[in-house]
Structures
1.
Amino acid sequence: MPRFDKATEYSYAWCKAVIDYITSDGKCDVSVAEIENAVKSVVERMLNDFPEAIFCFYDHGNEACLLGNDEQHLIDLTNNKLLKNREVYTMACLSAKELGVDSYHRYHTIFWGSWELISFTTDALEEFERAMNFGIKMRIDGETDWNKIMEATIEHDNKIIDELIGKGKIFAAALLRQDRDARRVWTDKTPPPDQNSKCFWRNLLLTLFGNRAWRISKPF
Amino acid sequence: MSDERDQKIAKAAIKAAKEMLQSLPDDENLVMGREVFTGKEVKRKFEFDDEFAAKTAEQILKLKLDTLVRKKKR
């Protein structure tokens, strides 16, 4: 849970709401890396200590990394092995792209993220919080099929979009529609589309062996 | 003829986008990734930033289409 700029103040609050939801009636154990602790060394240690835990990350990211509170890479393509066989839930911008695809292919990670920038307006913070938190809350409540969670989340988003339109918050509704359509979950039922890696050698192996080549840890 | 048609369509899209932006109060914020703009700044940005204006027009059209498609499915 980094918090280092205006945007992360909002996402921090949303993540806090999820933690409150988990801890309110002891639904499950939670370990939190908050603000100054949301940095690579601490998070790597936590992921090593809890190899089966769901990894939930709410703040900034880009196509190939999640950013820590020090604005340095927290998880990227050099340490995403820590996401092996793990469920990852993040609202970090663009995270479903390179990081999500690589984690899914190489480490069999179930990856929930966004294909585009996440946008929202502060006149509808409560509605965006409900939308962003719905999926992880459903998982915490016991649903283990991420594709079912995705379907339900889209339905839930649609209700909120209509609610926002009803309240005259049209711009907020348009942005939530955009966030909804940008959301991806990479599972065996909904794998990422075939695409090339940025690594020349992996591309060569992908050409030769198909998607199995993702499982080769470091080609050269 | 085609130019005139395009202009009419563009004018309608711009009008719809401007109306949509009016729904964001001046003192509230738009957060786009790491960028944050006040409602007032967003409205100014629409006037001067062509890419942002085009994207905003696209957003309102997509929202309209989305609600129509969902209504039809019900």
2.
Amino acid sequence: MIEQVLSALLAVVAAIGASVTYFYGSNWLLDRLVADRRAPDGTYVSRQRARDAVRPWLFLAPALLVLGVYLVYPVVETLRLSFFGSNGDTFVGAANWTWAVQNEGVRTAVRNNVLWLLVVPSLSTVFGLLVATLADRVAWGNVAKSLVFMPMAISFVGASVIWKFVYDYRGAGSEQIGILNAVVVALGGEPQAWITVEPWNNFLLMVILVWIQTGFAMVILSAALRGVPEETIEAARIDGASDVAVFFRIIIPQIFSTILVVWTTITIVVLKIFDIVAAMTNGQWGTEVLANAMYNWMFRGGGHFGRGSVIALMIMIAVIPIMAYNIRRFREEEARR
Amino acid sequence: MAEVTLDHVYKRFGDVTAVQDFSLEIQDAEFMVFVGPSGCGKTTTLRMVAGLEEISDGTLRIGDRVVNDMPPKDRDIAMVFQNYALYPHMNVHQNMSFGLRLRKTPKADIERRVQEAADILQIGHLLERRPRELSGGQRQRVALGRAIVREPKVFLMDEPLSNLDAKLRVEMRASISKLHQRLGVTTIYVTHDQVEAMTMGTRIVVMKDGLIQQVDSPVKLYDEPVNKFVAGFIGSPAMNFMIGGVENGVLRSANFDIRPTDELAGKLQKHDGKKVYVGIRPENFGLKGYTSIPEQDNVVRARVEVVEPLGAETHIIASVGADQNVVARVDPHAPVAAGDDIELLVDPNFLHAFDLESEANLRFA
């Protein structure tokens, strides 16, 4: 244990040291190698321009290198692999793609991803907005907000472990340790193995992500709500608006761009959803999603690089438009400032 | 059209009493101005009338209805805010018609009223614009327009001009006055600017520390302030105060001897031998030799500190004794320079004396 901590510390120190050495050293070298000098006829030659041209690249180089190795290269390689067979050495043309279109498992994963996309961002945003709005009206609002925010600090896998207990199932005769079954039994119902009940198990998994993302939505929207000028609300009340009208016609429109940002951000998280499904069901009982399917084909059991790559590319293609939209909106907002 | 009546109204925030025992009857079509330094409770009072603050004690009537517990939307009032409070996501037309649309006013009616208001305020060409595309003055006009289209019983205005530059403020002051004359709607106008109060108000409420000091017409407020606070707050440059003793009916100190009118002298009798504040407005001073005020027992000896020529008049800031400064408004052609010793003559008809303790105007004692 101590050894691991120490080696982790060492790694941190070494990494920071290496970075400092690189930036400081390369900067120093540049100043040395491209120094101002005197021409043979004695005139002074400034090479400031040359240095200024090189310096940004010097500083950007590590980042570009890392991006290249860990982002650009994998994309290209994945694209290549998607046209090759299970070991990545025999060219199979579009066979993997036609397989993906026809395969039942992939279809289920696509269907589930769409469901996740519809349910999780909507519910998270709506709940987040609700909590943000209502918490400001009660004295214990800040406590409530902290509690709602807490799941944000838990990893998806950790959250899954917690919810595994919530959905836990013991035989009908024994005592239920899962709260959901405990409640059901207490109300006179039959205990269920919840995460195997199709199609509802999908929604039970979504609940976990909603539970996590509501805190995120709440924090961002809460800040946006603070930004709504109190006077516009008072003016609306004097203009004759009820609380509901104030909320929907004055407050929501003013924070609408933030709502969109929250929505799209959660959407991107959802598109990549993997951990929760992997930890809870590993895609069994009709809960498969694309990222988990990809992982299974790529590294676990499936053992088919080509098919795994196709699924990975499907996810990427789905994310790109939302990403692009998000970036465009962000730029517009920045430009307006 | 409505009267607004406040009857012993209080506003408390915890232990702090922001407004105390506020009683006032505002007549129909009156332009009532609340004025006072910041924190005097004027805005709080306005917000109570609007229904944005609860009334801690007392009753508030608009027309013949008690509205203490009525939400703002049912009070039939319109308010203009200091920061305009336009809805940023609506264009000018939508901003102005919002209240009418909420009330499900017929479309044709809305169009007519918005158009009328836009004509009055000369913002017809801006109807499609968003608030952020408007200048401060235009925004203020839209905010006024939003209030007008509602055709409310009462207009409430909370320092509507304080975010405008000086020139625009003078223009808008006149526009609002004209608007009031034209529409004849009861208006309550809050400002900290005594010039706005004087120029616009039918009557003015002067407030300090949550208490009404005086309610009167502008001229009466200026001529007959009930206490030193009102006397000093209304008028620019402010009234001068000097401490002097009452000796046999004459106000006297090392630097002046002023014999008041018989009326004031009578009031001062019971203060004989005591000290009082002597209050003189800048224009009731004259520079000896350059004024129509005759020299009697009315001379203040002073030394010129600063001369401020304004063209039409000149302000002299002069020291009287070691620790008192006065401002005198004198003939612009008077040859004075800093450092001169001068004699200022006081018009006894406009002389005020205030009790040292209570600061009450002794003319009304």
